[in-house]
Design goal:
The protein is mostly beta strands. It has a single domain, classed as Jelly Rolls, CATH 2.60.120. It is about 15% helix and about 40% strand. It contains three helices and nine strands; from the N terminus they run H-E-E-H-E-E-E-E-E-E-H-E. Strands 6-5-8-3-2-1-9 form a seven-stranded mixed sheet. It is globular and about 35 Å long.
């Protein structure tokens, strides 16, 4: 990673998370090679919104997704019940580090998809999108933009 990228990343990781008035935020992904990509994400901050997730969606734009914030590190298990499209799931530590990626989760499956360790966040995006953008474990993710409400 280049020095300038490191400085920007350190500055951004120290910034407070943010949300826009419509309940979305911009998620910046800084890959290990210094390249940045982004997603516009819906925020799943409540137990109800985390439970509902992306169920019943027939499409998801290439740069769209959902950001699940559990408020603290927890053992996460996700599933695809009532989810009509394949999804990539990135399991993310409290410091923004991508711990693991589960690619192309099978639509409508009730099989639990577990993070390999406790994580604070999960990003769900269209199946195959993380591979298309070369996002891998070890990359960093952070929200950018106005103040974010705390998860419950």
């Amino acid at each position: 990673m280049k020095f300038g990228t490191c400085v920007v990343l350190v500055a951004l990781l120290g910034a407070a998370p943010v949300a826009f008035a419509d309940g979305t935020a911009r998620l910046l992904v800084v890959r290990a090679d210094g390249v940045s990509v982004w997603f516009d994400v819906e925020l799943a901050l409540s137990a109800a919104s985390r439970s509902r997730g992306l169920m019943q969606r027939e499409t998801l734009a290439p740069q769209a997704g959902m950001w699940f914030d559990f408020g603290r590190d927890v053992q996460v298990a996700m599933w695809m019940k009532d989810t009509l499209i394949a999804l990539d799931m990135a399991f993310v530590a409290a410091n923004g580090e991508v711990i693991d990626i589960h690619p192309r989760a099978e639509p409508l499956s009730e099989t639990l998809i577990r993070a390999p360790q406790a994580v604070r966040y999960v990003l769900e995006t269209a199946g195959g999108r993380l591979a298309d953008l070369a996002v891998t474990a070890g990359d960093r993710m952070l929200l950018t933009g106005p103040s974010l409400p705390k998860p419950d």
